[in-house]
Automatic annotation (TrEMBL):
Homodimer. GO terms for molecular function: methyltransferase activity. It catalyses: 5-hydroxyuridine(34) in tRNA + S-adenosyl-L-methionine = 5-methoxyuridine(34) in tRNA + S-adenosyl-L-homocysteine + H(+). This is tRNA 5-hydroxyuridine methyltransferase. The keyword Ribosomal protein does not apply. It comes from Sporosarcina aquimarina.
């Protein structure tokens, strides 16, 4: 935890016991969820955008969906998770949070999901937080479901600092993923169909606004 995150935690008063339990669950079971500073910043960005609908790729145990839903009483979230164990935990947590009416959870592989099954044909916001080496494929499939003027958010763009070092310094098992993540970043930053920014918050958040 950085000095900033430690300092900021002193002022966090809106996190309830269920959220704290989920954070501990994720830590003990090595489930990747957004860092506290990252999710807080993401919620702040959504408060500026004020979306009515959001599609999330990568539910994990439902942490980010629940945090977001608690901050936006009118927002409906569709979220996709392929891992059976994580999906089951997400179902439990969402029910315990009494948010099953506003969070639609799909146990599917996002890359093969029939998008006609989703409750919305177009979304105000898209949040990608799944397999980092597949970001470009997720983006290309689901960007079509984002309204003109809508925003696409991607987490873990720094991948714990691995994008900043030479390839030989990256563990071999991660090199293809990091190579793909860097290629995606270069592609989207140069894509004229989007206005894109990369924020050094949490593990790196990318924001791409779809041109009208």
């Amino acid at each position: 935890m950085t000095n900033y995150e430690s300092y900021k935690l002193k002022f966090d008063t809106g996190v309830d016991s269920l959220v704290t339990e989920m954070e501990q669950d994720a830590k003990e079971n090595f489930v990747p969820i957004m860092e506290r500073s990252g999710i807080d910043t993401f919620i702040g960005l959504l408060k500026i955008q004020q979306p009515d609908t959001l599609l999330e790729i990568g539910s994990a145990i439902g942490y980010s969906a629940i945090r977001i839903a608690k901050s936006f009483p009118e927002l409906h979230i569709s979220t996709i998770e392929r891992d059976e164990v994580r999906h089951a935990k997400a179902v439990d947590y969402i029910q315990r949070a009494h948010l099953e009416g506003r969070i639609s959870l799909f146990k599917e592989d996002a890359l093969t999901l029939n998008t006609d099954l989703l409750p919305e044909s177009l979304y105000d916001a898209l949040f990608i937080d799944a397999a980092k080496g597949q970001y470009k494929r997720f983006f290309e499939k689901y960007a079509a479901l984002v309204k003109p003027g809508g925003i696409i958010y991607c987490d873990n763009m720094f991948m714990h600092g691995m994008v900043f070092v030479e390839e030989q310094e990256v563990p071999k098992r991660n090199r293809t993923m990091i190579r793909n993540l860097k290629a995606f970043t270069e592609w989207i930053m140069a894509n004229p169909e989007y206005e894109t920014s990369l924020l050094p918050v949490g593990d790196g958040i990318l924001i791409a606004r779809k041109n009208d």
